[in-house]
Design goal:
By secondary structure, the protein is mainly alpha-helical. The protein has 13 helices and no strands. It starts with a helix and ends with a helix.
């Protein structure tokens, strides 16, 4: 007689693999294969009609290291991430705490905070052009009331990147607020009642109870904000196109420019590999170091 236990285990294994197959197909098609293909492309030279591609090893990476524009773009992206990530998270938390409290027209406040998230990034960029346009924009009109001169917010290197950061913060804070708002509503009200009985102030309750309980949500938002800081380029096409003088150019826009404007796919692939490596290292640090402290393990 056949071993019934072994037959049962075999059926369970087949059933498990059948359940995993759709996910494996999707990951292979849209994640694993593109990653391997990108790494492979980065090891070849740029091909032309007269000069076909040839294997050059790490030469494309050496070109990036010697490229001053690449380092300027990397610096811009670090500033962009360093400004947009913490400000968006702090604003989202403040908005969620206010929207979760007992205030008049609470539903309207939540809707108003979330509305920018619904807008496509292209639409948001066009909307903010009405704020930044020199002489006619809302910011210049307000400044004129106080005698301030007209400022070309998007046309000068000193302000272009900061103007782009403002659009991103306005767009993302409402999105992150939704996660904080959902997390706040899972906190048992008994904790607040106990804190009030013990005579704890609102700030003490928020700092000692609410913020620690929100740490898993904060970690989740932090990971998403980091990913967004290297993938949001839609508004650059509308606002600055990376200018002036590459002052607002970010890494993904530079990758797109190399791949589709300069037709230098190997250089774009090399930059993509570097970005994936940095993001992978940061994600590993967050999940293996910060995550342990977040969940108190």
């Amino acid at each position: 007689m056949p071993d019934l236990a072994a037959l049962r285990r075999r059926r369970q294994a087949i059933h498990g693999w059948l359940l995993l197959t759709p996910t494996l197909v999707m990951l292979t098609t849209f994640a694993f294969y593109p990653t391997v293909a990108t790494v492979w492309t980065s090891l070849f030279s740029r091909g032309t009609r007269r000069r076909p591609t040839e294997f050059v090893g790490l030469e494309n990476y050496q070109r990036l290291i010697d490229d001053p524009t690449f380092w300027l773009v990397a610096k811009n992206n670090l500033i962009y991430a360093g400004v947009t990530i913490p400000i968006s998270i702090v604003l989202a938390l403040a908005m969620a705490l206010w929207a979760n409290s007992k205030i008049p027209a609470r539903s309207f406040v939540r809707t108003a905070y979330f509305t920018p998230t619904v807008l496509p990034m292209i639409a948001a960029g066009n909307l903010w052009l009405f704020f930044y346009t020199p002489g006619f924009g809302v910011l210049d009109q307000i400044g004129a009331l106080f005698g301030a001169p007209s400022v070309n917010w998007l046309g000068q290197p000193e302000t272009a990147l900061w103007a782009v950061c403002a659009v991103t913060i306005w767009k993302e804070a409402g999105f992150f607020m939704i996660f904080y708002l959902a997390a706040l509503q899972t906190i048992p009200p008994d904790l607040k009642e106990a804190a009030q009985i013990e005579g704890a102030s609102r700030w003490a309750y928020t700092r000692r109870i609410v913020l620690p309980l929100l740490m898993p949500t904060t970690l989740f938002i932090l990971v998403n904000a980091m990913i967004n800081s290297v993938k949001l380029i839609d508004h650059l096409f509308i606002l600055t196109k990376g200018g002036p003088s590459d002052a607002s150019k970010l890494i993904l826009y530079y990758i797109w420019e190399n791949a589709f404007a300069f037709f230098d796919a190997p250089a774009a692939a090399a930059m993509t590999v570097l970005v994936l490596g940095v993001l992978g290292a940061l994600a590993a640090f967050q999940f293996f170091v910060i995550d342990r402290r977040t969940h108190y393990r």
